Amino acid sequence: MVTIRSLALMAIAMLLTSTAGSAFAIPFTPVLDEFWIIKNGVEIFRDGFGNGILPPDGPDGSSTYSSVAGAGLGGMTSEAGGKLTMTPALGAPTLITGVFADTFTSGLRRNTTNSSGPDSLLLGDSFEVHGLYDLSNLPANSGQSFGIGVTDRFTPSNAGNDELRVFVVRNVTGDLGVAFRELSFIDDTNQVVAFESIESFLPFSAGSQIELMLSKAADTDEVLASWRFGTSSTFNQMDNINNDTAQPVTIYNGEAYTRARFQSTDTNVPIPVPSTYALMLAGLGVLTFVARRKGHNPR
After folding, report:
1. Tens of pLDDT along 42-58?
2. What per-residue confidence (pLDDT) applies to 69?
3. Average confidence (pLDDT) per 10 residues, the chain, 299 residues
4. Which fold has domain 26-268?
5. Domain ranges of the chain
6. Predicted model pTM
7. Got the DSSP string for the chain?
């Protein structure tokens, strides 16, 4: 016979089973404050995440962003107080095999896909893509990261295949730093360009921020990665020579335009989701109720 007590115990058992090994882990939830794009010296886009509506909504309307991380931008968990909080463990599997991360979430700005439009980022244009992140929730494990990227790949069927990313990450040796990577979706590679440790700056004070930037001069396909802390007036420019190819990092390989995105990644470790917490609390509540009734029943 199934009793209320047994149902409650079953609920708690389901929670422990679904989160085995990580039930008490704190989810990695990077926070993005602003994301903006400058073209030929003029700002053409800025999202301060201030309207309380999660992406794909943004300054361009309800379809500001698209993403390869699943319908509804899975992993975007909160937009409040001018901040976008992401939980990449709730996102989609990464698209390149053998990368350091397992899951990711991403917002890719849509309006840069029209090569004749004012928002397009063409080879002849200069551009800067910026992302301002909080340093309140840092990567704790290898595979956790947050950052920005540019890509000449829009759909799996088009000619472009490359993406460049600059991001804050915990590397395989446990060092916290800023990484510059070059990804090829055709070659299925994710190559290190540069890594600069920020471990010596720990711990960061409350409210600390880091600004990441990818930039390109007009009439060149070479892209530079830079970063600075929110209190600094100057950027640290990173090496842009791919360690594997010994060539400068480039974009526009197969396409006439590129697009800007923000993203975060995580290792594929299950984390409790709100419905799971509710299930556990309900089970504990029932057990408490049963215990109280038994305590008041005369024998």
Report:
1. 999 999 999 999 999 99
2. 53
3. 49 43 68 97 97 92 75 77 93 75 88 78 95 96 94 67 92 94 82 94 95 97 96 96 88 85 82 46 43 44
4. Jelly Rolls (2.60.120)
5. 1-25+272-299, 26-268
6. 0.81
7. ---HHHHHHHHHHHHHHHTTTTTTPPP---EEEEEEEEETTEEEEEE---SS--TT-BTTBTTSEE-SS-TT-TTEEEEETTEEEE-GGGSEE-SSTT-S-SEEEEEEEGGG--TTSTT-EETTS-EEEEEEEESSS---STT-EEEEEEES--STTSS--EEEEEEEEE-TTS-EEEEEEEEETTTTEEEEEEEEE-GGGPSPPTT-EEEEEEEE-TT--B-EEEEEETT-SS-EEPP-B-TTT-SB-B--SS-SEEEEEEEEEE-S-----HHHHHHHHHHHHHHHHHHHHHHHS--
Tokens of 226: 């830079």
Name the residue with tokens 């991001």: 167
